[in-house]
Amino acid sequence: MAHGPLQRLAAVYIPYRLYRVEWQDGGVRESRYLALDCVRASFDLYAFPAVPPAESLQRLHTRNHPEPAVPEAQTGALILEHGRRLAYGRGLLRLRDLRLSAELVIPELHIPYWAGFFGRDGQSPRVRVLDAVRRSLEGAKLCGFVREWLAG
């Protein structure tokens, strides 16, 4: 309420790329399904326990989605770096012969967000973004991106 009352609410769908990231160290093999946004490649990662089943996905036609702007080669390299950090987080001193790989599983998966526009009449509205899946408020990176994208 510090920014004024809610004026508008809009659904925004951010495109992500889903990868299967696998790392192998000696005889230990682990894999994770990680999704990285493909508009800036800087928003929070999504982790999935498995590939989302087809019945849990919806096909939706809307204008409320930015176009992917980051090439697949770049998101692939970044997702490998995230995988490397995950592997190191399991114990840097235990790693001997780390091998990483990333396989693109879903080239474009749109994650829903809600953008709220707050403000009083005559003021430029403030934007707050809520992750519609995690049900958590997003930070300055995503709020700033949504504001810029809508203004552009």
What is the topology?
Elements lengths: L5 E20 L2 E10 L8 E3 L23 H18 L8 E21 L7 E6 L4 E2 L2 H12 L1
Antiparallel strand pairs: 1-2, 1-4, 2-3, 4-5, 5-6
Write a concise synopsis of the structure shown.
The protein has helices at residues 72-89, 140-151, and strands at 6-25, 28-37, 46-48, 98-118, 126-131, 136-137. 20% of the residues lie in helices and 41% in strands. The protein has two helices and six strands.
Descriptive overview:
The chain has helices at residues 72-89, 140-151; strands spanning 6-25, 28-37, 46-48, 98-118, 126-131, 136-137. Strand 5 and strand 6 (136-137) form a beta hairpin. By secondary structure, it is α+β, with helices and mostly antiparallel strands. 18% of the residues are buried. A six-stranded antiparallel β-sheet has the order 3-2-1-4-5-6. 20% of the residues lie in helices and 41% in strands. The chain starts with 5 loop residues before the first strand and ends with a helix. The chain has one domain (6-151). The radius of gyration is 18 Å and the shape is elongated. The model has no long low-confidence stretch (mean pLDDT 89).
Key phrases:
single chain, 152 residues, 41% strand
The domain tally reads: 1
Instruction: State the low-pLDDT regions, or none.
Output: none
Number of β-strand runs: 6
Question: Average pLDDT across residues?
Answer: 89
Q: What is the count of DSSP helices, taking H or I runs of 4+ residues?
A: 2
By secondary-structure content and strand pairing, the structural class works out as alpha+beta
Largest sheet: 6 strands, antiparallel
